[in-house]
Amino acid sequence: MxxxxxxxxxxxDVPVGFAIPDLGAVLPARATLRTERVHLxxxxxxxxxxxxxxxxxxxxxxxxxxxxxxxxxxxxxxGSRIEITEPLHTAHDEDVTPPAAITGxxxxxxxxxxxxPIAIVRTERIVHSIHDEFGIxxxxxxxxxxxxxxxxxxxxxxxxREVEVELKHRPEKLLRRVGKALExxxxxxxxxxxxxxxxxxxxxxxxxPAVIQQGIAPQPATDPITGYLAQQYRDLVxxxxxxxxxxxxxxxxxxxxxxxxxxxxxxxPVLVDVDPxxxxxxxxxxxxxxxxxxxxxxxxxxxxxxxxxxxELELGPVAARISMGLDExxxxxxxxxxxxxxxxxxxxxxxxxQELVERQLTIKGxxxxxxxxxxxxxxxxxxxxxxxxxxxPDDDAALHRARKSAKRARYAYEAAAPAGAKRRVRQFxxxxxxxxxxxxAVVAKQLLRTWATATAGRADENGFTFGLLWQRADxxxxxxxxxxxxxxx
Length: 489
Fold this sequence. Notes:
single chain, alpha+beta, 2 domains, 8-stranded antiparallel beta barrel, globular
């Protein structure tokens, strides 16, 4: 059975002759120290394209004195890492086929490609375990002497020493205090580079292109648009990992899809060799994410809306009806989303976005004036759509189209980063929020009408409160239109 742990650790490079300093002054009172020496051997796996490394994910089969088994480490948006472990079948298990419980989480990275050994890392570790007065483990400080062999056309051997501190059950400030003590003794913080990345060599042929990596510090892309697309691919893959690990990543993944579509549409004249079907495929996946995200937004919307209803005007089990209705919609949406994420169509979409980024890397630079004109064109298109929508007071869809144009223009400014972009991005964010309130009211009114109709003939329910909420949502729409006409956005 798989185990999952949140891992919070930091690493330091240390010079020859480095000695772990006395940490007594930075540890809690009556803390105790236990030390042991262990031997570890880890075989790391990846696809021929290094897809796991690109996504800051590692998969290893570990043997040795402790911590044995299959282990996958996934990056987290909070800076910590999630470790998923599966035991070996026996102490002498020689099986090199990763277990399905782990490969299932990595399906969006692997995409049918073979997982093969890429490096062997052997570690002589001195573990300093620090416990509080009650015996609770606070943190582990590992003094590692590492020897690695990169597996490829030629075996590349490297050796180094590093110190790793993993926080267990204390606040972040304890980790910071220990880190400062190490640095005063001569240690140097190391950011981003894992043992695997170091074993392969950041500047070696074994490492993938830096522009589409998370694990190795990215180098500047050939131009801002390529870098922007590369970031959206990273976010798309990070969202895949989060969703498979049942972490809430619907919104950032959907935003990545929108940014990709915006870039495809706005900058089509300056992009290289774009698959004409890609925009529709990204839209398909974004729509599946949207089904779930819209429910999440509505849940928050109705939470606030009900809080503003006086108790004497809440007739019947209104909150329960809304909760059950949204729960059903969310379950159905997640079912469709998860099914799609196992499809050949979805894996082909991820491949297409990755290949699009790689093709853009061949461009040495785009004409700045042409890019600027495309950004300005997107801005003007938004302005036209908003003006047209405000001339049609009963056309809700027109304002929704204006909102989508606002997002597209904002993302164009983000991607191209012309002069004044930050100010214009802030303006579009405010507009999006205003137009978003309008669209939330549109969706809320549709749901409220459905739920109000369902109360007919039910003695324990009443449509009054649903009608009240409908009227308030309608008032929100009218207020947004007045605000936009008056330039209050």
